[in-house]
Amino acid sequence: MIAVLAGLAAAVAIAGVGVIVLGLFGGGGATRSPSATQSSRFDAVDPRRWWRGLTPARRRWIAGGLIAGAVVMAITRWAPALVIIPLIVAVAPGLLGDPKNRDIEVLEALDRWVRALTASLLTGRSVPDAIRSTRRQAPETLAAAVTLLAARLDERWPLPDALAAFADDVNHPEADAVAAALIVAGQRGTGAAATLEALADALQDRLSAARDIDNERAKPRIVVRQVTAIIAVVLVLALITSPKYFEPYRHGAGPLLAVALMLVYILALARLQAASRPPVRARLRIVPRQVRQGTLSEGGVR
Fold this sequence. Notes:
Shape: elongated
């Protein structure tokens, strides 16, 4: 009976940890209006909406973890396994993996697109015509934003306004720099290819530095994965060869202590992954009216 109560208490604790983990890693979306935020909170309460929002791979991991936890609990008669096993299977792989680095993806895409623009400008096209001609060459990361940019130009948007909207669509500091350079190049009419070529070289340097930083940030995660694998192997071998070693965790406060130790480790992994994410850099938000006057200094930032 105590073990069952411990399992129920652990389930409540894991729900709290789930909220913390979701807060750390699930809130990286775009800024929403207050009404959208309120509706999203109500949607998060609905398990069906939450389940439908998961990827198929994530659903399989969660379902597999629940099944494995039920099987282990049925075999060992240890109630906390119903919480610990799904936690290990469903949450730990995501925390031990390498987080997606949007900085590198955007830098790679901008570098390729700017070089395509430069090649198009060298044929004598204007900046708007070069943008239209390279819309199909844009990398997947920028494809939607570049297509929308070309459509705005087709609708006779002024070049500064269209590029400012493009920068907002991409929502990245380097996209702001590219948009500003294209606005200036479009105003001057000459030397646009040389301007973009210099910008492409700067993007390449920034990309190389970002890759080096990402490699350095990945080293602690590699060590943690190795340590986790060693701990898992040692625990499994100890369970097989010396089952009495785990006897204190079957009675009294032992089950709660086992769950607490697992939660502490999961929270440590969550903190490590949060610390290894690149910081969000401030954007240079372009004001088209001020760019038309030829300045991108303090007045061009809002």
